[in-house]
Amino acid sequence: MSDTEVLEELFRVIDDRIVNPKPGSYVTGLVTDPKGMDKVLEKMGEETTEFIIAMKNGVSGRTVEEAADLQFHLLIALRIAGIDLSDLMEELKKRRR
Question: For FRET with 72, which of 38, 46, 52, 95 sits at 20 to 30 Å CA-CA?
Answer without folding.
Answer: 95
